[in-house]
Fold each of these.
Amino acid sequence: MENLRVLKHLAMMDAVKDFIPISSGEIAKMLGMSQQSSSKKILELIDDEIIERRFGAKKPLIKITKKGVGLLQKEYADYQRIFEALKKLSAKGVVISGMDEGRYYLTLKGYKEQLKRKLRFSPYEGTLNLKLLSSESGKLNILKESAGINIDGFQDGERTFGPGKCFHAKIRNADCAVIMPNRSHYSNVVEIISKDYLREKLKLRDGDEVEVEIRL
Amino acid sequence: MENLRVLKHLAMMDAVKDFIPISSGEIAKMLGMSQQSSSKKILELIDDEIIERRFGAKKPLIKITKKGVGLLQKEYADYQRIFEALKKLSAKGVVISGMDEGRYYLTLKGYKEQLKRKLRFSPYEGTLNLKLLSSESGKLNILKESAGINIDGFQDGERTFGPGKCFHAKIRNADCAVIMPNRSHYSNVVEIISKDYLREKLKLRDGDEVEVEIRL
DNA sequence: ATTACTATAGCGCGAGTAG
DNA sequence: TCTACTCGCGCTATAGTAA
């Protein structure tokens, strides 16, 4: 319904609260349409009991009805859903065995202490590797494009360890985090850390399918 | 722009995050229009750089561009403004002298203790009377229709004191509250209480115009 | 000033259809 | 299957104008 635009404009002029003095010509000007069209739309809105009008001494008075406020709320809720969903990302994957590389990195003080401080938990020294379903491939790009929580790189003797990032996440209601290097070759595997040994806590075995909810 | 409806629908299907596989026919069905119209609208959105399309192996892939997300955010912000404004009410009035009736009620334990508990401050034993400008007359009706914070009535010996309600408010950044009886004759005067003697704290004299911000 | 009618102009929708 | 063209009908917006 295009009349929603008119309704929204009236709402932004506080016609949700109380009658506001406004003429069809003024509404028309605001919305870039003719007075005649505006008049017609107003009549339609009145017909649908979305707004209410009174002819006062001076300008006509318009107020949005409960039904009209309901329409606006529904619309508002839709936008809330859109932007709430934007903060989250859920992806399905199957548990696989890594090559204990993750475990090695987690023993390094340079990473370990940062993770503890920034994630507010001491990670169990090992990662759970999740191979995302092929249908979820795009989700990894989202993670790569998102800032997340930055993990600085560092030097240890002569070896350099690169920077990365992580995201708070949940698997079956267990708090965890997704960690990834900033520079990564193509991969459809994500590494998950948690304060607990997730394989045991969640009774996971290679091949099990799980869903991870990531907070961007 | 009617195309906003199409854009919103795409957003609700997560096309803000990533490319989603969807055909013009599917979009058409969802929005109750013909495949032809849907196709045209898609082309318009692409032309305006609001969405981006790729033709993959299977279905066409559609994603909302930054510009498109910007449009949605603007729309979302409008709705936020509408509903945030609904929680507040500001009204202008001039300071007048009451007949110390307010002061009397505030000395009564039955009201005083409720106000302290429910407003979380001990009111100064006196009220500031504000006569609303005639242009603000509608605002009082809003207050009357709003629930506010309920103040119970009580009995004291043989006299009955009626129930009322109050609202947290601010005058020139000073925390205060508007109090009003549930049953009130017509009046364009509101009574304000605060932990301080507002007349002194804000250097107010009869006839001064002030604006009160009321939290509904 | 307003609102809102009627008549007309023009745009948008969808059927048919090609690629 | 899909997209997207043309074309004709019809809806909708606006100009003119009455009340």
Amino acid sequence: MKYWLFKTEPDVFSIHDLAKSPAKTACWEGVRNYQARNMLRDETKVGDRVLIYHSGGTSPCIAGVASIAKAGYPDSHSWDRKSKYYDSASSPENPRWYMVDVRLDQIFPCPLTLAGLREVKGLAEMGLLRKGNRLSIQPVTKGEFAIIVKLAVK
DNA sequence: GCCAACGTTGGC
DNA sequence: GCCAACGTTGGC
């Protein structure tokens, strides 16, 4: 099993939107970065755990945990002309972009702020905390995941 | 709103 | 293949 961190802008799609989705499950569409695409397409498996990160705003934070409900599959928004994620280079026959389905497991009672996470020993190497890392899909180590869940549930 | 960091594009 | 220009991300 792998562990991930997915970034989202809560104004666009928050963990609360995920909670309101049918069966608390939604597709994670619109990833338009090749490195992130490759991970979604090649490395995700059903059951993988996903930290949901809210970027932007006054207090960016890890808001909760979800699981992969459907592993990487072509992002149909990429050939939907009406979608803001439309890409003329992508087609059903030759999809350029991929997405996954995620199902909410838990909203953290107290979201873990970025500032707070920087204080935590054992997370110093975490991708999220490294300068200049803009990837919206990031692998997380088993140890980092365990530390974060323990902090949030305490 | 600023700006650092990084990705993408396109001319050559 | 190099690299300048430009666009995007995202914390602050």
